[in-house]
């Protein structure tokens, strides 16, 4: 086991919700500061009082920077990396751990996932404007769920008791301008209303709603399939070039509500949150394949004659929704006992219909030029005309998935007569999940020689895309979406579109599954407060019972058979946290904890494809690619140490380190078996692939964070403050027949810097975030591994209080016009497989609050 000496961080927050106006009031000679400073101080207080190690994004900070969703909010916390899709944050990794191995909860109840085959919750589904705070628990105590090797993201919804006044009303609205999509005006807005009532204000009700609508464009450059060529300037050549015009509309609708009652020793609540994410996507792409490139001396330029030009159009609609309803409360019994209880229902769903068309032709010789990282391939005789591109394929996809989760929990806390905060706590919870995913794709090919058609009469005006500012690529010819849809609807049942039974059966079979996954858990823990030293120790036991059905396709007989598997396992998850407070403003923490990460649904499904082929020589060959319901979960033993100095109001210096030793990482094993039998058939040669558990992996890292509000400075300078964090991570994943490498989504370096200002009616922030390069996944060989390159974001916002209740603001997002970039091969950043540009976005808006 590797010995690690740490220096952790966990700076608390810098995150964003409804604006809180800067104001001060005198009461008993005390100055009360609100606004960004107050909320950052609240987040620090949450971190300071936690039993484990957490970071908090306070609700009233959500909105201080132009973040689109929850993923972009938590990115500003230390140790958090985010994968972006179309310029918006989506998947979150914590301390180098991939998104699918982390936990996601709302008010402590598991949130599940609308996506079909993964446990990685796409956090772009949820807007942050309806939340009280976002908690990222990096070291958990035994009363928290076992899932979450990197940590658990807990979304805490608002209640009327979170505010300091009996009536609450706030509304925010803004309209924007987008650099790459002139004429499109994104809009966002949210409203919260409610209050407390009753003789003693014992009742509270709060309702909230949010809406955003954004139509935008992105330009992309997407070559792939680089293969090694020693004489090439980059040591390799791609097999194609692709550039793409994306036009998207993204709409989010959210709602939340809470009804609370507090009377004497009992508190009761009913709460709910709903969010729906809709996306309409138009993707026009030009592709040129060149398989026989010949390079000139120097390997920078060259030519190819075996070529193909393709025009593709994809129209895709996505609709993902999350609904969570919960009820519960707590009761004090006497002076020593507290009982907490609750139940929840969560429903998630995804609907994803889409259509795609492809036309192909031969442009003849092409010239290659690799002198720029975004290289060029130009046909010597010009790009093909619409009449030279023949129809090749049409697909109509209709995927859908549903998930229902029922949960219940019961916790007992007994105060102990040992120190001020000593207690014994024990309890149990249950989670029952029913999940299914159904993929359907109808595939059509071209007709015979007498029944074929071209793009002639179905094309539209050419477009030029700019994956990098100042460098344009022409897409020609363009498939007109309305003409091709009308033509397809009129001819789909005729001889021009030939239905492909085999591909349709395969696409409608291999990804389908249904499962029941039930978790039964119990725990016991104690917090012993000895004054300067406090110890929290406990044990959690989780029993997982999985029944999963997939579908196996025999490609020879086109037979589809259901395959059902069961998996039962029990995990024992101990934890201990020691806190030492040698002074009122200093805390040291040392912790050990064990957590799990359950396998991906796609890996667990026992479905797959089986092929059989009898060669001319009489040798029976075949292949089988299946899931594996017998996979064990990832199990991580984690060690953490932190030192936290709360040196001033709103000030924090945090240093620390962490180490995670992870058993049972999952990889796809590919074997060639000889003289074997499988599924009732004998094979001379069988190529078999299936997810398997590997040996071990480990992640170690250092975190540091610093936050200060410079109130000691004179005059206007006293409004300044700074928030800095940095995380260094190193991982080692051992996979058979591969050299050791890093975990997917694990960046070696994460850092962020924010300068903020609050003085009088002015409040402003500018933030820069850097996410270092990270592997996307593990492929069959290192040379084909794919990586996300460094991603840097610069955002800013300034606000001015017109009155005590009205604020106007302006904000800018992605001010450096940073693209996302991916490349192939660990050490070859010039082997680009994606560069996608989104441009800058600007907003102006107004906030009202009473």
From TrEMBL:
Residues 1-22 form the signal peptide. Residues 361-815 form the TonB-dependent receptor-like beta-barrel domain. It is a multi-pass membrane protein. InterPro entries: Beta-barrel_TonB, Beta-barrel_TonB_sf, Plug_dom, Plug_dom_sf, TonB-dep_rcpt-like, TonB_rcpt_bac. It is found in: Cell outer membrane. Residues 47-151 form the TonB-dependent receptor plug domain. Keywords: Cell outer membrane, Membrane, Receptor, Signal, TonB box, Transmembrane, Transmembrane beta strand, Transport. Belongs to the TonB-dependent receptor family. This is TonB-dependent receptor.
